[in-house]
Amino acid sequence: MDILSILGAGFQAFLTDPTVMALLIGGVILGLIFGVIPGLTAALGVSLILPLTYVLSPIQGLATLIGIYVGGISGGLYGAILINIPGTSASIVTCFDGHPMAKKGKAAEALSMGIFASFIGGTFSMFILVTVAPLLAKAALVFGPWEYTALGIMGLSVVVSLASKDLLKGLISAVVGIFLALAGMDPILGISRFTFGFWQLNTGFPTLPTMMGFFALGEMLNQVRSLESGSGEMQVLQKKVPLLPSWSNIKQSRLALFIGSIVGTIIGILPGVGQSTASMLAYSQAKALSKHPDEFGKGSIEGVAVSESANNAVCGGAMIPMMTLGIPGDLVTSILMGGLVIHGLQPGPLMFRLNTDVVGSMFVAYALSNIIMVIVALAMVRIFVKLLKVPAKILYPIILIMCVLGTFSVNNRVFDIWILLIAGIFGYLFTGSGFSLPPMILGYILGPIVESNFRTAIIASKGNLADVANKPIAVIILIISALFILLPLYFKFRRTKAIKR
User: How confident is the model at residue 484 (pLDDT cuts 50, 70, 90)?
Assistant: First the structure.
């Protein structure tokens, strides 16, 4: 199936069902709200709304979730610029220059560039998604169990090495996630395991309560602990936010926009790394190549441009491995994967053949959501500024109620609510002890992929582990996986050795 046919099927799905566009617009608005308010994130928004999509068709549900995804990542720039508290972790780097600009009376310029950069980064990654994903899906059709085993291992190695400051804690976190995924039915023998006497765990830890516990409840508990009672000094918008940044600002920031879009898309393709890392890497590169590096950190328009273009470019990049290989590129796409599975769809290369309309609608939804985001972000600026003042004591009880109701509505089981609460408390204690959540979530998602494919490969090879040497693609992927783990250890050894000298 070629790219034009896939896009044609997607546009047809939108044109034949007007509610899809309405749900997409609503998703973007809701996502922006979740992004604007400090403590609420895109992952939280997608996980909270996911149960409500059960009553929708797959295309309707996925359009809503993609809208929330794009809006949630973009909305964080308001708090970062106006009160120096990013609405989401994706906009942490925007604080470096956005708030200094606001203090100088340039808040409108910073917001305009931030929204424009978000659109540029998202649109760039959209083109990469639409062109690369179908080609990668065709290539992935030749993959066998050894190749998928190697891909799963590479995904874990990437996220362990890049998403965790402590490599040992990253490995422990990934192992914990894999252990959680082992509960339930054995994929090969068909017998139950690690159920601890609870028959409800025969199908494994329920995905939705577990993910909502880690993301929504755990994040909420962390925010209650870390957020100050005040929201910080609000910088006043002295003038209307222009539809487009001035030509001089665009011209000055063109290299930063390009770097942010490229780096963000590439980082998005790497499993589990995320927006904050992409923004930081792109920011460092833009500063190194800028004609005005001394202005970075003091109110540089380039700093705002590179940060917001990078974190939004991650979205399209992260959807590439999720759709083509069944490996999520970041935390939000891991929840989107759950949305696909819930609607009876299996992410991977076969989805491009069997569910062309769904794939095409996801492409179209992502492209349109970036356009809708710009319109809504500019039209509702004053409303979003007021949302920054909403106290947490009002928000978090509402979120808790939504979590409980959303969890119970799936299977009508009180047991799922207990899973939600236990996962939330465990996630809070886990991150509070210095462990990283992304490796654990990726371990939970990728563990079954690695296990089932590895055991299938061993059975097909009649127990001969050396048969992997006859699979050059798998060998190359495994070598890359080893480098992701060994290189950080090597550089750490060199730094330690240099300090001792």
Answer: confident
Indicate the range of 79-93, 283-297, 301-315, 327-341 predicted with least confidence. 79-93
Tokens at 216, concatenated: 């929504």
Greatest alpha-carbon pair distance for the chain in Å reads: 72
Task: Give the contacts of 107 (CB within 8 A, at least 6 positions apart).
Answer: 81, 82, 101, 235, 236, 237, 238
Q: How far apart are CA 493 and CA 317, in angstroms?
A: 32
Contacts of 167 (CB under 8 A, 6+ apart): 160, 161, 485, 488, 489
Please report the pLDDT score of residue 235 as a whole number: 52
Using left for φ > 0, alpha for ψ between -120 and 50, and beta otherwise, residue 182 falls in: alpha
Asked if 270 and 318 count as a contact pair (C-beta separation under 8 A), the reply is no
DSSP 261-307: HHHHHHHHHSTT--HHHHHHHHHHHHHHH-S-GGGTTSS-HHHHHHH
Give the residue-averaged pLDDT of 112-136.
Answer: 90
Quote the number of domains for the chain. 1
Give the Cβ contact number of residue 369 at 10 Å: 26
Among 96-105, 305-314, 404-413, 470-479, the minimum mean pLDDT is found in 404-413
Q: How far is CA 429 from CA 270, 291, 352, in A?
A: 27, 45, 40
Average pLDDT score, the chain:
81
**Cα torsion for 226, 227, 228, 229, to the nearest 10°?**
-130
Q: What amino acid is encoded at 142 in this protein?
A: V
Q: What percent of the chain has pLDDT over 90?
A: 14
Map residue 240 onto helix, strand or coil: coil
Residue 231: per-residue pLDDT? 46
Torsional sign, CA 71, 65, 265, 167: positive
Closest CA to 254 of 117, 124, 378, 74: 117
Q: H helices of 380-471, where?
A: 381-387, 392-411, 414-432, 437-460
CA–CA separation, 173 and 90 (whole Å): 22
Sign of the four-CA dihedral 462, 466, 472, 473: positive
The mean per-residue pLDDT over the stretch 148-157 comes to 80
Tokens of 312: 């939004």
Q: What is the pLDDT of residue 230?
A: 45
> CA of 247: how far to CAs of 252, 286, 304, 378, 490, in Å?
8, 19, 16, 18, 46
Strand partners, 185: 192
Rounded CA separation 213/407 (Å): 10
Range of the domain at 210: 3-500
